[in-house]
């Protein structure tokens, strides 16, 4: 697949590297025991350490370390037995210590890679440079008062994993697939909740363009993007901008940019003169972090099935297509939901593809309409499994099933109960159907005659009328056959 | 009235010959009488009386019940303000109690006040304090002397009988040098022996709490109470703390005392070298073997220290920005402006000097040449001691290159001031324990101290040798 972009004069190649900031899923912060619950009252989750009171000291939260190691394993990366926490020094109102504790020279996780899958069935590896742990800053609130800035330190000290990719990404779509894949892996591992709206996963995007075969061009960094949609928009805008500048004979200045989500444009955040010297040095309040190989192996053995493994399993065990399998596995909750359906009844394994359709088209559209996440679905996987079974066993038709699903969605009821209550069970009893067909043929003698005179297409009319009379409950296959037999007898 | 020592006062108290209240009144009176020495940043009679009521309820088993203790104003205390002798924390009242002071409270001690120090412990004369100089109580009227620093207020408080013990912190000599200047005992234990939790940080990899007292026994009692592991300080040692005071003895049989040749430096008075000689002879007399040793990287200790300590300080003091607590300059027009004004007005000259030095040595392009190199040299210096302690148990040196100097001397010459730390800094860089005990006087009658060093966690041998010297000196 060619990703080259045609400018006015040349073709250009986009080069993208991502720094993803993923909030570690943990009840307490990286160096203090304050809670990390999102959306709490401002400054209600701030310890003496988080507020950088005199004499307060950071203490490593071992759980966050384990979470980072697990994430590293999920990214097929090297776990470093020895890593160091450094101080990154700069002043800002929402940075109480005047420095951020991060990892600079010796990160906890080294080189790794993830695979992204394209719709056409091909795939590509994106290399990962490192994953390191760091503290999040607080929040400056500029919109609460016309003349004042307020600071909320609830987020101050929350653990983040910064995942840095090599510049292996070549398009906005690839960037989207890459961040989805990282998100999916972390959610499978339960090391990040993946909630981009709440800022649990955000990315800085480094972008440059070059003529194919040239060295890398000068890059610009777009900061703090928190949706895949915005990431793609920002990349597309920025690539176009850079190509225009270059084709007009200009040069790209290395810069940090912000993306305005309403205008869809990027603009410089700070100029070069304000470039920071962060004066990194090892934090003397913390000892270097040494992790036993044994502990790493223990975590390795406890790693759950990851999206790629699950995809392979779906293809081999359930005969799903690569595309269906990757759609299902890209979201852990969807995939878990699917697994629960299949496991709920032995016979459903043979209907795996039908289950996919009912899940990804019918249920998804109901969920999307109401903006409900799959893990909050009013339709339980067990009930959706029952519904599919009712269809495959010819107890209800697909058409009726759609109605039943809506009812299940609205009332959380079991499909069998809905069918029973509403009398929707499919009629498979041939004599019942024969009676209906006889009535229809009798009521429409003229059309029967037309049919007999050679208008074969009118068969559909009789099917429709009979189905209507059965209130949609007649088994279509049996109905069809009976009509054909009855009409042929009249010939 | 003078109670001489913790052990003596405790005996009187246990025999009901004195009450906690009487102790409090005695010390309040003495502190008021010596107000002009400017030893305390915070002193409040009511706060002492409040403590008396609580202390009276405690059992006599509490080791420090009723013992008057002065606290260096770098330790955060929930009951008294904490300033670090800086305008930037002028009105700061912590809501928490430092690990060390909490331990002292639990054992029933009575805090008489918060003592003066060099601003954020940066200095060697207690003359960089925002609250003015402390005067050495041993000064003659016409010639006010410096008490040393940075824990000058605490050393002076013990020397002036305003308490029987005091806390200090030692980053490069801030306990040992003022102990020498004021003629009291001061010990800096092994780095990590006492938790740093709740002590305003100067240089995290060097800061260590310790104590001042009137004699070695009292120092051993106090240290065993404030030492111990603290999960809230990642650099706190998880070692068993021996009962230093119970194990005290003067026997030095089979002990080898090293005398480092590098500590004989130019410009040191014969008096100081004489006191050193006397101490060597005393130890020898008690059965110790004297061995001349070499600590070859000693000459690099001072420059190494004056890179590492300011580097850490430049970052540790970044939190004093006017945003959350403490002093905030008025009329700032922007956030950057607020930082600039707050920190320009809130910090004194010496603190600013060190922040600038520290910022410089950590800057891109200078980091390798200064900070990284200093870290490497620090390892060499530490290794000197490791090698030395393969052939000796203790090292004996002078504590400071001079006796207490006049207050107005050295004020404007930072390099000369930094030289005060020449004998104390190497042990700080190595993280090993050191004590200073008075062992002689100069011609003017001013005390001179000697320093005993040993390997990590070997405070007991230091106490024993110091105890031996003290007995001999008496």
* Major β-sheet profile of chain A: 9 strands, mixed
Q: How much helicity do the residues of chain A have?
A: 25-40%
Strand arrangement across the biggest beta sheet of chain B:
1-3-2-4-6-5-10-11-9-7-8
> What is the class of chain B in the CATH system?
Alpha Beta
Q: List how many beta strands of chain B DSSP finds.
A: 11
Number of individual domains of chain B: 1
Indicate how many domains the architecture of chain A comprises.
3
Strands of chain A, count: 16
Shape of chain B: globular
Q: Percent of residues of chain B in helical segments?
A: 25-40%
SSE diagram, text form:
The complex is a heterodimer of chains A (491) and B (474).
Chain A: E1 5-6, E2 11-23, H1 62-74, E3 82-83, E4 86-89, E5 99-102, E6 112-117, E7 123-135, E8 139-141, E9 150-152, E10 159-165, H2 172-189, E11 201-210, E12 220-225, H3 228-247, E13 255-260, E14 265-270, E15 281-282, E16 289-290, H4 293-301, H5 307-318, H6 322-330, H7 332-344, H8 352-370, H9 381-392, H10 398-411, H11 415-422, H12 430-443, H13 445-452, H14 459-469, H15 476-490
Parallel strand pairs in A: 12-13
Antiparallel strand pairs in A: 1-2, 2-10, 2-11, 3-16, 4-5, 4-15, 6-7, 7-10, 8-9, 11-12, 13-14
Chain B: H1 6-14, H2 20-33, E1 40-42, H3 45-56, E2 68-72, H4 99-106, E3 110-115, H5 152-159, E4 165-170, H6 176-182, E5 185-188, E6 208-213, H7 216-226, H8 244-247, E7 256-260, H9 270-285, E8 289-293, H10 301-316, H11 335-346, H12 349-362, H13 368-391, E9 394-398, H14 414-418, H15 425-430, E10 434-441, E11 447-453, H16 459-473
Parallel strand pairs in B: 2-3, 2-4, 7-8, 7-9
Antiparallel strand pairs in B: 1-3, 4-6, 5-6, 5-10, 9-11, 10-11
Helix pairs in contact in B: 2-3, 5-6, 7-16, 10-12, 10-13
């Amino acid at each position: 697949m060619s990703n080259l972009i045609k400018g006015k004069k040349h073709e250009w190649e986009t080069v993208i590297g991502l720094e993803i900031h993923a909030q570690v899923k943990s009840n307490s912060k990286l160096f203090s025991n304050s809670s990390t619950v999102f959306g709490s009252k401002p400054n209600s989750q701030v310890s003496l350490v988080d507020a950088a009171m005199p004499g307060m000291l950071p203490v490593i939260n071992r759980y966050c370390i384990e979470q980072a190691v697990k994430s590293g394993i999920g990214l097929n990366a090297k776990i470093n037995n020895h890593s160091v926490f450094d101080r990154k020094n700069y002043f800002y109102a929402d940075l109480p210590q005047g420095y951020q504790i991060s990892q600079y020279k010796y990160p906890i996780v080294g080189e790794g890679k993830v695979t992204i899958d394209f719709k056409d069935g091909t795939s590509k590896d994106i290399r990962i440079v490192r994953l390191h742990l760091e503290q999040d800053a607080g929040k400056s609130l500029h919109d609460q008062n016309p003349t004042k800035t307020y600071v909320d330190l609830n987020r101050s000290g929350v653990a983040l994993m910064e995942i840095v990719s090599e510049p292996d990404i070549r398009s906005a779509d690839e960037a989207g697939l890459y961040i989805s894949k990282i998100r999916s892996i972390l959610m499978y591992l339960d090391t990040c909740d993946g909630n981009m709206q709440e800022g649990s996963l955000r990315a800085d995007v480094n972008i440059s363009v070059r003529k194919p075969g040239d060295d890398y061009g000068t890059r610009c960094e777009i900061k703090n993007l928190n949706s895949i949609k915005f990431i793609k928009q920002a990349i597309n805008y920025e690539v176009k901008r850079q190509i225009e500048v270059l084709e007009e004979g200009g040069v790209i200045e290395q810069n940090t940019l912000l993306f305005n989500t309403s205008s869809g444009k990027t603009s410089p955040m700070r100029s070069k003169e304000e470039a920071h010297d962060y004066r990194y040095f090892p934090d003397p309040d913390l000892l270097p972090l040494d992790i036993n190989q044994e502990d790493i192996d223990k975590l390795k053995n406890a790693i759950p099935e990851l999206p790629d493994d699950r995809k392979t399993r779906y293809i081999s065990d359930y005969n799903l297509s690569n595309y269906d399998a990757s759609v299902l596995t890209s979201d852990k909750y969807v995939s878990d939901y699917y697994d629960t359906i299949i496991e709920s009844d032995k016979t459903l394994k043979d209907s795996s593809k039908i289950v996919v359709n009912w899940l990804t088209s019918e249920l998804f559209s109901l969920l999307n309409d109401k903006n409900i996440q799959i893990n909050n679905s009013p339709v339980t996987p067990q009930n959706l499994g029952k519904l599919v079974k009712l269809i495959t066993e010819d107890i209800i038709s697909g058409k009726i099933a759609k109605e039943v699903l809506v009812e299940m969605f609205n009332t959380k009821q079991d499909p069998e109960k809905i069918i029973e209550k509403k009398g929707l069970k499919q009629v498979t009893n041939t004599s019942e159907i024969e009676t209906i067909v006889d009535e229809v043929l009798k009521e429409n003698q003229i059309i029967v005659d037309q049919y007999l005179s050679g208008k074969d297409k009118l068969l559909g009319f009789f099917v429709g009328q009979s189905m209507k009379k059965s209130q949609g409950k007649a088994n279509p296959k049996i109905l069809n056959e009976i009509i054909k037999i009855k009409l042929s007898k009249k010939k | 009235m003078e109670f001489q020592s913790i052990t003596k006062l405790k005996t009187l108290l246990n025999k009901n010959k004195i009450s906690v209240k009487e102790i409090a009144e005695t010390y309040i009176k003495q502190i008021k009488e010596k107000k002009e020495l400017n030893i305390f940043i915070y002193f409040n009679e009511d706060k002492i009386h409040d403590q008396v009521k609580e202390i009276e309820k405690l059992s006599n088993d509490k080791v420090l019940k009723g013992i008057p203790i002065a606290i260096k104003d770098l330790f955060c205390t929930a009951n008294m303000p904490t300033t670090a002798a800086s305008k930037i924390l002028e009105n700061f009242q912590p809501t928490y109690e430092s690990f060390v002071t909490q331990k002292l409270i639990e054992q029933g001690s009575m805090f008489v006040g918060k003592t003066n120090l060099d601003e954020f412990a940066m200095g060697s004369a207690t003359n960089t304090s925002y609250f003015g100089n402390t005067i050495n109580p041993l000064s003659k009227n016409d010639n006010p002397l410096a008490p040393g620093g940075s824990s000058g207020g605490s050393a002076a408080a013990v020397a002036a009988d305003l308490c029987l013990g005091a806390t200090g912190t030692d980053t490069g000599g801030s306990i040992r040098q003022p102990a020498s200047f004021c003629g009291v005992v001061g010990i800096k234990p092994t780095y990590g022996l006492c938790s740093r939790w709740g002590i305003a940080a100067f240089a995290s990899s060097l800061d260590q709490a310790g104590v001042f007292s009137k004699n070695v026994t009292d120092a051993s009692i106090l240290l065993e109470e404030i030492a111990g592991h603290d999960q809230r300080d990642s650099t706190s040692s998880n070692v068993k703390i021996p009962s230093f005071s119970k194990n005290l003895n003067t026997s030095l049989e089979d002990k080898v005392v090293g005398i480092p040749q590098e500590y004989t430096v130019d410009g040191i008075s014969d008096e100081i070298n004489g006191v050193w000689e006397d101490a060597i002879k005393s130890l020898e007399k008690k059965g110790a073997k004297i061995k001349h040793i070499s600590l070859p990287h000693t000459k690099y200790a001072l420059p190494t220290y004056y890179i590492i300590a300011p580097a850490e300080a430049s970052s540790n003091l970044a939190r004093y920005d006017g945003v959350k607590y403490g002093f905030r300059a008025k009329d700032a027009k922007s956030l950057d402006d607020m930082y600039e004004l707050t920190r320009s007005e809130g910090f004194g000259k010496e603190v600013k000097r060190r922040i600038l030095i520290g910022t410089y040595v950590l800057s891109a392009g200078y980091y390798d040449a200064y900070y990284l190199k200093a870290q490497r040299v620090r390892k060499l210096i530490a290794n000197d001691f490791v090698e030395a302690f393969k052939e000796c148990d203790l090292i004996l040196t002078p504590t400071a290159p001079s006796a207490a100097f006049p207050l107005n001397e050295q004020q404007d010459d930072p390099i000369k001031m930094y030289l005060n730390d020449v004998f104390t800094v190497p042990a700080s860089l190595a993280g090993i324990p050191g004590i200073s005990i008075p062992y002689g006087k100069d011609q003017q009658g001013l005390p001179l101290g000697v320093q005993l060093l040993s390997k990590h966690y070997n405070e007991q041998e230091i106490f024993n040798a110091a105890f031996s010297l003290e007995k001999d000196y008496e």
